[in-house]
Amino acid sequence: MRTAMIVSMLCTAVHCATASVVINEINYNSDSAFDVEDWVELHNPGAIAANMGDWQLRDEDDGHIFTFPQGTILLPDQYLVVCVDPALFESGYGNMIPVLGPMGYGLGGGGDQVRLFSADDLVNPVDFVEYDDHLPWPEEPDGDGATLELLDPMLDNSIPESWQGSCTIGGTPGAMNSRCGSAATEDVPAQFVLHPAFPNPFNPSTTIRFELATTSLTRVALYSMSGRRVRVISDGLLSSGEHSFQVDGSDLSSGVYLLGLESAGEMTTQKLVLLK
Question: CA–CA separation, 233 vs 23, rounded Å?
Answer without folding.
Answer: 29
